[in-house]
Amino acid sequence: MQTVVSGIRPTGNLHLGNYFGALRNFIKMQQENDCYFFIADYHSLTTHPTPADLHGNVKSVLVDYLAAGLDPEKATLYLQSDVPETTELYLFLNMNAYKGELERVTSFKEKARIQPDNINAGLLTYPTLMAADIIIHKAHKVPVGKDQEQHLEMTRTFANRFNRLYNVDYFPEPEAYNFGEQLIKIPGLDGSTKMGKSEGEGNAIFLNDEPEVIRKKIMKAVTDSGPKTEGEPKSQAIENIFALMKALSAPETLDYFEAEYQACRIRYGDMKKQLADDAISFTGPFRERIKEISSNNAYLSKVVNMGKEKAQASASKTVREVREIIGFKKF
Ligand code: TRP
């Protein structure tokens, strides 16, 4: 049995890009692995959310995770801040993380560029906190996207450095878990290649969007003036509509509109109407469960406490052993 760890920053509700990316695969992984899925609320403090936003955003992600099918009985589903052992390991790792290497991290440079007035130490040490998240459970596998590969590489560096410094073989080297073929990339509705929250209003379809909202967003999606000659390649915006249809609609529906496109007869209005219907039915069960779960505080509290207990059991064992290795002794 492999130990898998993954974290997600709490930035509000999840969209279809999140679902077809990681989430759908997490649901499969929880069957065969010892999975720890947590909400990285400590990490989110690097951008100074207000207290009300912080709690609301954590809750949205938790509810969406549960509604999508993460099973708190199978996987360990927890809040990062419920396991303060993580911060102790983070402190230990920071003693062996160097300013130069942290400053060279791409995500740090990018964040420093975006928020020049808030280049805080938490931002600089984001990779050591992430490494602590991962190695505190002695993870073997970390399902991460391309943008997190450098962080994972640093996790390996910090884990190996610890082992070398104390001459132990304690932390395993965590590897990236690549979903490969199973990863369906969902494009945005604005003609861009990625569905994302930060890409602007209307680009993403959220799992909790109401039917009218979904219909409005899809009907507004960017298209072009249509193919003029047979075999004309599709523009990016049209590729996107087809990609969404491939993910959400029946294969016959996709085939029908593909043929219409090839014959230069396609009416994008009709296609979008169909896509809206299919997106509304696809998200229906999510919408229902999100409503149900988000109003059930007793259930949420039970889930969070269960996760906290399981994650703490694993984390406190690691921190106890690490303290021993470092040389802390009882009098
Ligand atoms: N940095 C990750 C992101 O932005 C979130 C994260 C924090 C994470 N700790 C982690 C992911 C540990 C995997 C493992 O998406």
Brief summary of the model shown:
This protein has about 325 residues and is mainly alpha-helical. The protein has helices spanning about 15-30, 40-45, 50-70, 85-95, 100-105, 105-115, 120-125, 125-135, 150-165, 210-220, 235-250, 250-260, 270-295, 295-325; strands spanning about 5-10, 35-40, 75-80, 140-145, 175.
Distance between the termini: 38 Å
How is the largest sheet built, in terms of strand order?
1-2-3
CATH class of the largest domain: Alpha Beta
Number of domains: 2
What would the principal axes of the Cα set say about the shape?
A: elongated
**Number of β-strand runs:** 5
Q: What is the structural class?
A: mainly alpha
Q: Which ions and ligands are bound to the chains?
A: tryptophan
CATH H-tier superfamily of the largest domain: HUPs
The string of secondary-structure elements, in order, is EHEHHEHHHHHEHEHHHHH
Mean pLDDT: 96
What is the gyration radius calculated from CA atoms?
Answer: 22 Å
- State the major sheet: 3 strands, parallel
Predict the CATH topology of the largest domain: Rossmann fold
Helix count equals: 14
Question: Low-confidence stretches at least 5 residues in length (pLDDT < 50)?
Answer: none
* Estimated helix fraction: 55-70%
User: Architecture of the largest domain, CATH level 2?
Assistant: 3-Layer(aba) Sandwich
